[in-house]
Design a protein that fits this description.
The structure holds two protein chains of two kinds. By secondary structure, chain A is of the alpha+beta class. Chain A has four helices and ten strands; from the N terminus they run βββααβββββαβαβ. In chain A, the strands form two sheets. Chain A has an eight-stranded mixed beta sheet with strand order 3-9-8-7-6-5-4-10, with helices on one face. A two-stranded antiparallel ribbon of chain A has the order 1-2. In chain A, 37% of the residues are buried. In chain B, strand 8 and strand 9 form a beta hairpin. Chain B has a four-stranded mixed beta sheet with strand order 5-15-7-10, with no helix packed on it. A four-stranded antiparallel beta sheet of chain B has the order 11-12-14-13. The two termini of chain B are 42 Å apart. The chains are: A alpha+beta, B alpha+beta.
Chain lengths: 225, 378
Amino acid sequence: LIECSGGKEFPLAEVRYSTTARLPVEAIWNFVEDMDNWAGYVVGYQSHEKLSSDRSVWVLKGDVGVLQRVVKFNVNVTEWAGPKQVHFELEGVNEPMKGSGTFSMDRYEDGDVGEDPANEDAGSGFVGRIIEGLLRFFQRLLRGRVERGAGADEGPGAGMAQLTFELRIEPGGPMAPMIDALIRPAMRVAAEDLATRIVARCEADRDRNPSAPLQPELQGQSQQK
Amino acid sequence: MYAWGGLANVVNWDYELIAERITNDQRSFGPGMMGFFVKAAQIDRGIPAHVETPVEQLIVEDGRVVGVRANRAGSAFFVRARLGVVLGIGGYDHNSEMAAMYENMPEWHSSAQPYFHGDNIVMGGEIGAAIAAVPPTNLAMFFGYNIPGEEHEGVPLYRSSWECGCPHAIWVNRSGERFCDEAFYKDYQPKLRRWNGHTQSQDNIPPFLIFDQNYRDKYPLGTFGPGMEIPSELAVQAESPRALAEKLGIDPDRFAQTIDRYNEFAAKGEDPDFGSGRYPWTRRLAGDPSYPNPNVGPLDKAPYFGVKLVPVGVGINSHGLKTNARAQVVHVRGHAIPGFYAVGNSAALLDLGAGYQSGTSNMRAITWGYVAARDLCA
């Protein structure tokens, strides 16, 4: 919960999305542990700069209601627990907001087929559904549809992986409640898109060449100091 | 908005209530009103709306407008009109060539949705419609800035600047001089457009918004509230008025004199030169009621800030299709074009002339839409 200027508490904007992969946990981890591999899959990605193995600066173009703003974040990885989990914290450079996120890779147990109950429907309300629908449309339009290989919906089978992405954003300043209400629908789409793209990419690469290492695919620019 | 203290008190508005309304899909102001019309047409009466199907040409048979050709996903889409065509597609805010030609404003930008490309002028012109203008100036536009990186559907969004209605903020021209009541757009619009025959230029364009740390301690610049860093691409900053003037490229000596004179009277809540704060409307909209003059306060605390402003349209233009008392579009030869009507901002503001007040755009659309519909059904 975040406390607003009037003393009233608002729930923190938080989203969690899980998807399964026809790959072992280690294959997903090998891809996720290097942010260059998946940076271009982040919704609104413009660029990122790696300052060290833990610290990086990201520039995203995000939706705030009907407007788009360029937001710069400092990201600090606080936990590398491969092949199980990556946890990071983020703080806005040009906008008063902070947050955190987690990539979790779990071994999939046979019989857990279907939509993960943890997937939250953050796009509540008519406006939320409209915005979410538009975001999905433009994402597909601008970046190409995410296609997973044949058999992806049948469940991965025992010993394969489940990827969960969690993201929490806490806007700051006096307008925090309004910003929170505006970005909440987009967060759900962003989490789903990132997790789905990572899995789709890993599966596609593995299907093409089971023995080849996974290669990065950036849509923006990456720099390393 | 007024009950929450107006624009000067924007950091203390009730954002919990705003968030609650966003979450509950509650609308207010113009969108709230439009909701009733959308419901009446599409839900109550089942009238279809063809979205993403821009109309590109009027269809004329024997001198009468009988339909339109639209573009649906790259293919022609024709609609025949049994009674006539009512054009309500706005003006030319996002057609820079038309804006330069009709508004005489360099560097024209817009805060309106990026859909207004002057199609009213183009389609009307193709069948001989007359163009009319608002005398003597367009009051329904403002000056403002773009927050770096802020866009509206892929087009840079320009915000109207209301900062100059708060204390500790003024406008100056390139000579470093004030030239208007900055809090009252009906005063600054004609003075911005003033043509100087001696210099052969519009001396007051561009205006520069000037404020100091007193302002930053209390009021926002756009979305940058007190305590937040303002991007250097947006505002120039300096430790003295003279240094600020040099950075902005305006006359430093006259600018320093302007600040000294303004401060001398502002300390007493007075503005004998331009009368800022004389109207209740400016005091309530952007003024700070804790000041003797809610629109006036001295600029005497470093650092000082300057923003070069550009013209910002709000979807209302000085030129549009000429219409008559039945909302019919008038031909350049003086007769009404059968079956062709224009309403809202597609029609010239001949009803209002140079006058403008917030809400009149909605009022005109409703009124003339009603007039056109009655005439079509008569």
